[in-house]
Amino acid sequence: MEIFVDSADPDEVRRVVALGWVDGVTTNPTLLARAGRGLRAAVAEIAALVRGPVSAEVLAAETEGMVHEGRTLAAISPNVVVKVPLTAAGLRAVEILAAEGIATNVTLCFSPVQALLAAKAGATYVSPFVGRLDDAGHDGMAVVAEILDIYRRYEFSTRVLVASVRHTDHVRRAALLGAHAATVPPKVLDGLCRHPMTDAGLARFAADAAAAGLSADT
Ligand code: G3P
User: Fold this and answer.
1) Active-site pick, 24, 67, 81, 83
2) Which secondary structure element, helix H or strand E, spans residue 93, and what is its range?
3) Per-residue pLDDT, 155
4) 125 CA to middle of ligand 1, Å?
5) Domains of the chain, with CATH numbers?
6) Half-sphere exposure for 29 (CA within 13 Å, toward CB)
7) CB–CB of 85/121 below 8 Å?
8) Average pLDDT of 79-95?
9) Ligand 1, atom 3: nearest CA belongs to which residue?
10) For residue 161, what are the CA distances in angstroms to 13, 26, 97?
11) Residue 5, SS3?
12) How remote is the CA of residue 89 from the centroid of ligand 1, in Å?
């Protein structure tokens, strides 16, 4: 499963990419506004930091504008994936961009039927927002399970990118379901490799080694 960081802050991206197991980056307009570096500048800087996909979202609401912005964003770097909202206009834009060989990530997906349409349009990725579904009283991961089931039945090649991740358990469940990718905020990402028993075990080993005067050189 690919693990992406959900951030538009180049400094943050540089830090987590150095961990070695982050496969790509997703941004959105809210994250870009927060990062305060402008859209093109931030996307270009981030795309140079990571070999894997970097999702950058169009701002237009109509197909023509989305396609124009999509081409512009894709021209920034070969690893840019154009993020398009799951609207009728967005699905049409995805079809046009896909026909030109431009990778897309259909975002703001909240239902299996929406995801079916994204796959039929030729999306490279579809992003179900599990955290926002949970927040609204739905079961976000159940939506992901249904999307994966539908995609398997029809052998769609669209990759399911679990987004709006709130905690480690979303990542665990995404992996168990066989989701292709998850995008994780930096704070949650930092916690993925941590476990209190690892910390306790390490402290015990360190104490025992120190008490015995152990050294890797002797
Ligand atoms: O980037 C899309 C998605 O991951 C946003 O997450 O936390 O704003 O619901 P959130």
Assistant:
1) 83
2) helix 88-99
3) 98
4) 15
5) 2-212 (3.20.20.70)
6) 9
7) no
8) 98
9) 164
10) 18, 10, 19
11) strand
12) 21
